[in-house]
Fold this protein.
Amino acid sequence: MHSVGDRRRSARGSAGRAFTIIELMVSVGLMVILIGVLSFVFQESSMAVGGATEAVNVWQKARNFNARLGRELASAMEFAVHRKSGAKTWFERPFALGEGEKPQEADSGNAIEFVSRTLNDGVLGSWDVKYVYEEEAGTDYGSIVRKKDRPDVQSNEFDLWDHAWDDRKDEVIAYPVRPIAEGVPIFSAGGNWAPLADKVPNTKIPPTVRTRLVFLDSLGGRTIRIPVEFYFPIYQGQ
């Protein structure tokens, strides 16, 4: 039989026993594996949340573009009405598409210009409105810019179709974006609208306008590219 002293010495020996090298290596290995798994799960979750947030932001840019252009196109005008006499003054060119020397002779392009009953600097009036796609240098994408008409320095009035844009007040409506395909125009008129009739400028506005754009993420479309096609109706009342 073991004496009380032998049992005490045995208990002290067991309590003071340390981990072996193998046990220590196994413990460290399991800890490393656990940390790696947790890091992977955290990284994947962060990427998923970031991707979802980026997608929401891209769709929000598309909605903002749709709301702004749609609102101003809905108020596009073929003529102005004089308040006192009630007489109508028809615009020679109330609507134009494309760029270059004669955008009024195009039925599609990467710019759209029209007369709209809208606000400029908080003033409601008949304004010359232009949206144009401007590509960023060294990339295949750019922005949709709303050009701001500038009043004549002498009369302080806004002249339609004078192209006196105040570049300092250009407003970026959508960025980054790009055409849906190479050679495919961003803006086009619907309803068989033609810019000229027997070489005479069309004084009518089209019933609809179609836009085709690819909205990109903040990295220029590295992960998210959303092609969107909008149809904007234009009021055709008298």
Q: What stands out?
A: The radius of gyration is 33 Å. The helical segments are 4-15, 21-74. The chain has two helices and 13 strands. The CA atoms of residues 131 and 146 lie 5 Å apart.
